Amino acid sequence: MIRVEHLTKRYGDFTAVNDLSFEIEEGHVYGFLGPNGAGKSTTMNIMTGCLSASEGHVRIEGYDIFEEPDRAKKRMGYLPEQPPLYMNETPLEYLKFVGEAKGVKGRELHRQIESVISQTRLEDVKDRLISNLSKGYRQRVGIAQALLGNPGVIILDEPTVGLDPIQIIEIRDLIKQLGQEHTVILSSHILSEVQTICEKVLIIDKGKLVAFDKPENLEKLLMASNAVSFIAEAENDEIKEVLEEIEAVADWQMKKQENGSVRVDVKIESGEASDVCRHIFFAFAKREKALLELTSKKANLEDVFLELTESGVDKASVDKDGKTDKPDTEPTENNDVEWMERQVDNR
Ligand code: ADP
Ligand code: MG
């Protein structure tokens, strides 16, 4: 339903969006995830026809946003990063104005305004000046205006930024509800937000798409970073023997503690960390060797994000001794796409 092809946006010498291509299907909630400055707002502004592109195409249900902007725009509702609200109007006056600007008239306009006010739960404040509303309510007015004209796609740029925790929960619930009737695309730099609301995640970094998948699949991508650590009162040879019995174990490091016990960090290649823990527990119990500690770490979307975006490359690849240990599958300037394809193949 939305097709973005080789989208590029340059500001002088600086490339804010770099050859971005993806497709959005109907009826899902999509998340644009990326650090500040990744190019999320720029992409959304181009997709909604608010900004021109340097190269590439955006098609909304087949209509090119640059060639047939009116038709394409009718199919989208947009809440920009800075909601375009008029502070000296009431939500009711403002929604009437936006609805008319979108070409909705008369009784239909009246019906739609009632419907969006009810959907965004603005009934109690609809006659107050927008300048007197809290940020949470202003954001709802912003979402209400995006819903006018009944577009199939709702695009929301960082809809929860600047809200307090209760307002954030309310807006997230509202977005989930909208997702039942609309295709929703929202941007965020907050991982947990995208993880809880979105069915599909596009991770953008420095204007490039570095991943596009379901949150749970992105976690699977990093299964390799699942790890188990334990401290055992055993000899190195015995520990080696135990670890070699476990197929899922990819690699390990042992370190003698001052009290004679050994600390072991185990990297797991596939499978569940909990299965590896279970095996280690019983193997040492059978040998009557004490385990003083046993913990597992499961990769989450945060790890995927850090691994995939440049901001995380530094952190992820420098170990506690300060050595860099770059995996050969790490994205670099020139092989992002190749790297992504390899990751997808590996699944
Ligand atoms: P995000 O929304 O992911 O935080 P943006 O799309 O706002 O990122 O910005 C992407 C990059 O483009 C940033 O480095 C930003 O400074 C730059 N940028 C955005 N708008 C302009 C502009 N009008 N002129 C020059 N650079 C810009
Ligand atoms: Mg932004």
UniProtKB/TrEMBL annotation:
Its EC number is 3.6.3.-. Residues 2-231 form the ABC transporter domain. GO terms for molecular function: ATP binding; ATP hydrolysis activity. Keywords: ATP-binding, Hydrolase, Nucleotide-binding, Transport. Residues 316-347 are annotated as: Disordered. InterPro entries: AAA+_ATPase, ABC_transporter-like_ATP-bd, P-loop_NTPase. This is Putative ABC transporter ATP-binding protein YxlF. Residues 316-329 have a biased composition (Basic and acidic residues). It comes from the Bacteria. Belongs to the ABC transporter superfamily. Pfam families: ABC_tran. It comes from Acetatifactor muris.
